[in-house]
Amino acid sequence: MSKAEIFNTICTEIKKISENDTLNLTPETVIEEISDWDSLNNVDLEMALETECKISFEVGEFEELTTISQMATALEKKVN
Amino acid sequence: MNLKKWTLLYILIPLFLLVSIFSFNFIIDPYSITPYNILNIPNKFARDDR
Amino acid sequence: MLFNSYEFIFLFLPVAFGVYFFLNAKFSPLSAKIWIIFASLFFYSWWNINYLPLITLSILVNFFISQALMDKPRSKKFYLLAGLTFNIGLLGYFKYMDFFIKNLNWGFNTDIPLLHLALPLAISFYTLQQIAYLVDSYGGLVKERNFLDYTLFVTFFPQLIAGPIVHHKEMMPQFSSLEAKVINYKNIATGLLVFSIGLFKKVVIADTFAKWASAGHANTEVLNLLEAWATSLSYTFQLYFDFSGYTDMAIGIALLFNIKLPQNFNSPYKSTGLIDFWQRWHMTLTRFITTYIYKPFLKSLGKISFEKAMFATVFTMFIAGLWHGAAWTFVIFGILHGLAIAINHYWKKTKLKLHIWLAWFITFNFLNLSFVIFRAESIEKAINIFTAMFTGTFILNYRWYDKLKFLDGHIEFGAWMQHVQGDKYTLLAIIFSFILTLGLKINSTTIIPILQFNKLTLFVGTLMLTFSLLKLHQVSEFLYFNF
Predict the structure, then answer these.
(1) What is the mean pLDDT of residues C1-15?
(2) Total number of domains constituting chain B
(3) Which burial class, exposed, middle or buried, applies to C256 when counting CB atoms under 10 A from its CB (0-12, 13-18, 19+)?
(4) Residue at C255 is within a domain
(5) Which of C69, C144, C263, C291 to mutate to test the interface with A (most CBs of A within 10 A)?
(6) Is residue C30 assigned to a domain?
(7) How far is the C-alpha of C317 from the C-alpha of C282, rounded, in Å?
(8) Among A1, C65, C118, C336, which residue has the fewest nearby CB atoms (within 10 Å)?
(9) Looking at the structure, do residues C234 and C137 belong to the same domain, yes or no?
(10) Who's near C322: CB < 8 A, 6+ residues apart?
(11) Three-state secondary structure along chain C?
């Protein structure tokens, strides 16, 4: 997967989870600052990404990633 | 005001106030806890409603 | 040593601070680091030196297990299990053994004697912090492996006793960096101001409420309706001002040493829902239980579903409740909060919107009621207070009789606040606290980046500090020391 593909995957999943297609997401978006985002959404996202990209996160690893671009970089490393 | 001066004042003002208040209490003490009562406040007056 | 004591403020803190920067400037950062570890352990031992060996053992065992785990990845599962067993065993033995025996005795009619162990100070806090390090070393997320930095991360005295529950990845790099080694007046000025705010919250506000809350909780059988509400609201405000005041003091003291502790409160009583509340209240505890309990537990249940997530939420809050103390009141408190969070999630799914004031009203009243259980000495006493809150006699101050004569015959006049040792100032303090917790746009954390060091802040800060220092005559302990 290329970085752009990964970025798109993350955005799609976030929109799916927050049930909001109109979100304006950029690489600099801080996940926790998305309106109405909570810890349940965060687990949903973590697990959705694990299934989509066929990887797994260690305990505490996902919490270190605060922005979409950090998430994409971490995923890119894991996928390839 | 520069930060260093601000910080020093911040530490010195409470110290000064505390020392003044406690020593003031000590020397005018109308409750006869210390041997001083320099303003000669009568005991009865100070303890009136206790 | 308490933060709000003369020996801490006038002796320990100046000496710890002075020697730290003196050693940094004249000798080496290493000697300064060892000094601050020594000072922290001294601070810890001030209460009871008997528990010094326990915290030392905990640090040594945890550090060596984590290092072994990282050095021998092939047997890392074994080390993780050994480490978790050690930590949970230690906490279980010292904190929960008597509770367990009591319930065993009750359930099976046995008569096993209790151990009557005094809870080692801060054990709940330093155990959690070390579990995080251990689990992270298992996940390959640990970068810092210096023993002194590790020891300092666990023992650093501002956060040692009652949090914030710090994470190694935010602390250890700060201890190893050189930036922390030179005096920084901006940090000192900010630290002093934040410390003063915390001290004021603690000794002026929380301790005032403490008197009424304790009296009310000691006389639960005889409270009238207004007294019962005064009791519960007093405790609700006492708990917040006590704990957030403590956190402010910790953050302020750490700043003197150029160390940034994480934020722990974000105006929690403004919350408009329970999910919102736990993102604003004891935030570092929420962070820990979400990362290290809730998520792993939920993932272990297999494919995620809403029902499973809600089950995991209630389970996690049950553990969080129990973490606060070994008693059924804490268990009930945790489960109630878990259920309330689950209801909040369910409500969110329906996409219905409550009016913001109604949402706040429901949330605040839930919190106020749940804190009755949290504080009560037993479930029966909590029920007494609830009964009085909703079915107690409504008695107004007899001094108001002349002005409110027209109510005679409908409302009783008499001793209206006697059992909480309160008076009209109880009412005023409650109103004042509502204004403080709801009416201000800023709080002690959001104020930090916009602080101006001018005559106004100097005046307000020194006023709060002096006033608090004068009130220090009657020193009281922080609530969270017991958890």
Answers:
(1) 90
(2) 1
(3) buried
(4) no
(5) C291
(6) yes
(7) 13
(8) C118
(9) no
(10) C96, C330, C331, C334
(11) CCCCCHHHHHHHHHHHHHHHHHHHHHCCHHHHHHHHHHHHHHHHHCCCHHHHHHHHHHHHHHHHHHHHHHHCHHHHHHHHHHHHHHHHHHHHHHHHHHHHHHHHHHHHCCCCCCCCCCCCCCHHHHHHHHHHHHHHHHCCCCCCCCHHHHHHHHHCHHHHCCCCCCCHHHHHHHHHCHHHHCCCHHHHHHHHHHHHHHHHHHHHHHHHHHHHHHHHHHCHHHCCHHHHHHHHHHHHHHHHHHHHHHHHHHHHHHHHCCCCCCCCCCCHHHCCCHHHHHCCCCHHHHHHHHHHHHHHHHHHCCCCCHHHHHHHHHHHHHHHHHHHCCCHHHHHHHHHHHHHHHHHHHHHHHCCCCCHHHHHHHHHHHHHHHHHHHHCCCHHHHHHHHHHHHHCCCEEEHHHCCCCHHHECCEEEECCCHHHCCCHHHHHHHHHHHHHHHHCCCCCCCCHHHCCCCHHHHHHHHHHHHHHHHHCCCCCCCHHHHC
Is the pLDDT score of C474 beyond 70?
Answer: no
Q: Amino acid letter at C44?
A: Y
Domain that holds residue C218: 205-242+260-272+354-461+471-482
Active site residue C324: yes
Give the tokens for residue C292. Answer: 């290290």
Question: In this structure, are C136 and C32 located in the same domain?
Answer: yes
Whether residues C102 and C43 share a domain: the answer is yes
In a domain, C395, yes or no: yes
Q: Of C143, C161, C179, which marks where a domain is finished?
A: C161
Are the beta carbons of A39 and C296 separated by less than 8 Å? no
Q: Rounded to whole angstroms, how far apart are CA atoms A19 and C259?
A: 40
Q: Give chain C's mean pLDDT.
A: 89
C313 touches chain A (CB under 8 A): yes
Pairing label, strands C412-414, C395-397:
parallel
pLDDT for B49: 47
Instruction: Count the domains in chain C.
Output: 2
CATH tag, A3-79: 1.10.1200.10
> What is the end-to-end Cα distance of chain B in Å, rounded?
47
Distance CA B30, CA B46 (A): 6
Tell the burial category of C434 from Cβ atoms under 10 Å away from its Cβ (0-12, 13-18, 19+): middle
Considering the domain architecture, whether residues C456 and C368 belong to the same structural domain is answered as yes
Count of residues making up chain A:
80
List, for residues C420-470, the tens digit of each pLDDT value.
Answer: 888 888 899 999 999 999 988 888 888 888 888 888 999 999 999 998 988
Average pLDDT over residues C339-343: 94
Domain of B13, in residue numbers: 3-46
CA distance C373 to C150: 37
Residue C303 placed within a domain? no
CB contact under 8 A, A63 and C291: yes
Contact C189 B3 (CB under 8 A): yes
- State phi, psi for C414 to the nearest 5 degrees: 175, -150
Q: Please check whether residue C458 touches B, CB under 8 A.
A: yes
Task: Name the pLDDT band for C480 (thresholds 50, 70, 90).
Answer: low
d(CA C100, CA C331): 13
